[in-house]
Records
---
Amino acid sequence: MRLQLAFLVVVLALAGCSSPSSPTAAPAAETYARRREISPAPTRRGNVLDRHDSLLVTTRPVNLLTLPLRPWFDSATSVRINQLFGWRDSTLQRRVLAALPYGGARLRQPVQLVLTPTEAARLREHQEEWPQLALSQQPLLTYTGRTAATVLGYPAANAQGFLSQAKRYRRGRFYNLRTGGIEGYYNGILKGHRGYKHPLVDAQGRPHGTWAADTAFQEGQDLHLSLDSKLQAYAESLLGGRKGYLVALDPRTGEILCSVSAPTYAPAMLTDPDEAGQRRALLEDEDMPLLNRPAMLANPPGSVFKLVNAAIALQLGAITPATPFPCDQSLISCVHRHPEARNLSMALQYSCNPYFYQVLREVINRVPDSLVADTVRARHVNLAAWRRLAKSFAFDTLLGTDVPRESPGFLPTPAYYDKARRTPNWTYRSIYSLSIGQGEINLTGLQMANMMAIIANKGWYITPHFVRAIGSTGQPLPRFRPRHYTLVDSANFKALLPGMLAVMKRGGTAEASTLADVGIAIAGKTGTVQNDEGDDHATFVGFAPAEHPKIAIAVYLENAGFGATAAAPCAALVIEKYLRGTISSPRRKRWERRMQYRHRPYQ
């Protein structure tokens, strides 16, 4: 009883000593009142700048001309308005039609047109003559360039007109357009937030601690991107109106240097009030330009995946760098004639399909001593081991980059094949397409570029990201700083390098795209993805300089044919432009002109 009484005295003493400043304290309601003090809203939205501090996105006041709800003006009035602003005779009609969200539909809401300062000044001088024309000045998200639309994106609040349009089209839901690029992903940091204080006060208004944690006021912060805006513009000019993507990053840091999703379009089309006509065309386009292909589109990678299969086979002891295999056309066809691949390097150089068919067969059909009596079980175990190692490359999972709506891609499991083949007794012959990166394997462009970073770094990567520094911190988000390691030893990645270098040399599949004349050694791999619905897709992956990589790149061109003739030249031009600043070879300048003159519909 005495012990219980002493314990009660201690508890009461501690309760009496508790401070009202603790959020967990429970002061008497009749003694202290809870208050919430809110600071004013942030006054500025942060800017977006590239890696060289060139301004990409800012908020500026713009002059908006609001036309009446109904088309009250006749042809004579239209001519006078054109004269007022110094426009050609048909300009007003053309701009109004371009601003209508649904073609020639009847006006259901006022049309707004953006005016230049000179045009706005003319209207102010003659405002009494034109009371029907309303002029206002509003802050508007402004893009200083016409590139990187899918990267920069938009905050939903600034694109309500576009989002309303998207609801009327069947692809609107597929795009999930409410989440837009860097502007959407980092919206909270860019716009800042209010500060909140939570004081406890007595009857005389004197403070006595707090009843909840305070929140500090934060003005909108700038974002410093890893994007090189000049390289981005150059890469977009090469892809033009074609379908596909190009992703380049710094393998040492994971910073994305450029990310092109083609067909391209100007980012302001989604936020400017008088671009509704172009937005309608973007939504209706069968080539789906609004799709962020590098992040959202997962496709079979083709022969570039032979690099991963080779690394896994080396890790599992299924082959060595000196293992030879015959080019047996009865197993799988080889699309070009080449010498016999006497080792792994030669197989990569020639991209020999039968060689890699036999490489993966050695992985899948190996029978451990413990499973010698059960080859079916052995194939399941081996495929699971293959998938576990491949998954450590950040495949079949969200890579975690700082753009919304990323696709995880796909790697098949034994259970997947059990269901797909309707039996667990499937054989290697029914899954051999994995050996050349076809079939059920699907990777995104970001994953393919990151795969090159892994090989360049001999087994590790930093999660690819677009924002290298937030505000004045000089740092990206914490999750974009640590290294991630694969389950493949560095020695097995080193064994891939001679073959990747040979790809770019005489006899290699990409010998025409070598940069040896300017002293740049590229380690690369071409790929051609079979397409049952049209022309094959062209792919290329690589990094340079080979010994001390500064850029890793992945190119995927839909319906472009061979990777060696379509994707590799594009990658070589971007690598040379980044590392040397200019294109020096007359032959490559011809490539450049040929690619840049392709039609670009939304620029």
Note: The longest helix spans residues 563-580.
---
Amino acid sequence: MITKLTYDGDCVFVHAGDTTQKTTSAFTRGSIVLDALAHTATFAKLPPVAIPEDIPLEAGKTLNFQLVAPDGELRSQKRSGELVANEKQPGVLHIGGTAQSPRLFPAEEGWGNAVYKYRAYFGHPGLNLDEQIPEWLQNSIKRQKEYWNHLAWLCREARRKCSPTATEEVIKFVQETILPEIDAFNDSLGVSKQKMKHPAKLKIEEPGVDGLWKFAGELRGRIEKGRQVPDGLLDKVVAFAEQFKPDYTPLNEFIKNFQEIAEKEAAALNLRRFEIRPLMAAFKAALNRRKTTKMAWSEGWPMIKYHDSPRSGDWGLHYYFNKAGVSSSLLETEEGVPGLTFGPPLNPADTNHKNLAFEHGGKTLREAEISILGDNKERWVFRFGVLQSRSLPPNSHIKEWQLLFKDGALWLCLILELQRPVPEPTALAAGLDVGWRRTEEGIRFGTLYEPSSWTVRELIIDLQQSPRDHKDRVPFRIDMGPAKWNRGRDRTCKQNRILLALFPEWQKHGIIPNPLEVRVALQTRRDYLNNRTKILLCKQLGEATPGWLDRAGRKGLLALKEQFKDNPGTQEILNEWEKNDDQIGTLSAAYNARLTAHLEYDQMQVALDVCGYLREKGITRLIVETNFLAKVAQKHDNEDPVSLKRSQKYRQFAAVGKFVQFLKDACSKCGILVDTHINVNITRICQYCNHLNPATEKEVFQCEGCHRLIKQDHNTAVNLSRFGTNVKLAEMALNAGREPQEDSETPEVRAEDI
């Protein structure tokens, strides 16, 4: 910060209390505000300092500034500027901040950042590696963990200071007032669904006033719904909580000054810059995540890492180049980039790794070496293997490399700055209708219309068995059909173990069902176990069977197990059910995780294929329907047709929202503009005669105006293209009660081309 100003009649000397980058940048680049009434000067966002009495404060006057170090030595930083009066604030003069230097690679020319992530190995066949983490890296990992715990402890102390009451008082109130009254209330109800649970936010180790207010909100919610609550409990909780007014100043100060606090803690632990960056970024992300997700007061804060805590063994090294970056081609030379070098690609026969290639663009296994200057000017070296899944793009620049160890896996990330094609909108625009219609082949999640050749292509999740010849497979297709059992798999495969657990009668050479059938089978098996258990419980309990048993789910059965814990027959039935239900739940979680990863990867590939297809046709603009998910969700209620309700499982399976996001990312990389269009009658308006037809659920309907048969999804895609490039048609579509007129400038679309 800046401590004081002195003036010798010619130059204003700015005395700095430190020489950090923040202070230096505020002096050299920040704006300077001089308040003649308050006699203060403010440099950028630093605290104001007093102005000497003899400094001339007149509009149009030029002042010279010189930075002075804390020890009194003159620094090399100087600046001068002309004082400008502020019309809205009399007596306030300012000198504008200097603009940043122009970028060498401006975004207007298509330059942007990209992350190339490679799998790394401590050891691998074909690589002569030690497979041991060197001592300097072990010490670095230990320092990083200590650094994180220091910051987490400071954050926890700041939160504790916000509470005006001791935790012991809240615990005493919960144990002596809230919990006994809830238990007495539940006992008075007997067997009833009106029973209350103990408040989870108050049964934690350190409950706070926020937990009390949350519990008060739960009580109010029960009262509004007409449900019973313990008499007088709400008034007692509110009266107790109103005694304490939390002061969030300590926490706000911690978040506001987090950068300075983190730098101070890093200096105390003697951390290097490549150790500080990953931890500060992760800590800031945890703090920001609480704002975006709107978590409760007691949730989401960075926690202290213990030996048995999740992801306590994660670490990272972030080596940032404090300049415009270095050419990525240096990694192909012996010189490498600062701190990182690559060896030559290894012979695939020596690595026992499949799908390796020497040619450009293929996967290669290489040896990598990190070489960093240590504390005593010695070299810290770490050697590991890298599976380079894709080559670095030409004419790109590496701005940072990151070595990350997360969830037991080692990764090397290269932050590149590369130039992508600059979008140049064409007169024609392609239209993409997004949906989730079940077809004979699978699920159609998109329909693409390309206007240059009047061609319609469908995007399909194919649930049928794949043709043997790749030429027979349709483009823009995600293969999720059944596969042969003996195609390089055995009974140890995780997917096959799941299927064997579901269908023990399957033979080795049987055909595996498609993923949609497997998901239905998993849910069917789970429902069967629940219904069978309820029948056995009814026979066991007789007249003591609760009336709500037929509507009970997993939570209800677990509550029944607690209620009849003294009944051996009931416990035996529920123990057997819980064991089988946990098994099915584990199978479902494992299968759905693999299925989601497979689907997301294929969605990215289809998005890239769509972009390549449009670039090949010379189309650099794509119109996509906007808010399609929100509009559908708003329309679904209990009065909707059965076919509409059934389509929800297809929407969840196809994950069309995720695909649209992948498509937008791919278009930004391929130089294609993505525009959105509101769905106002574009499905019902005929693409041939512009007649407004009534709404229908049918995939194929006959136009009332020209009597042509129209595919609804194809018609929507064509209209998106037409309306996205024709303002007059788009305006006519807004009027649902009037039939639009034919627009002569719109190219005619022939039925045989559809």
Note: Residues 568-616 form the longest helix (49 residues).
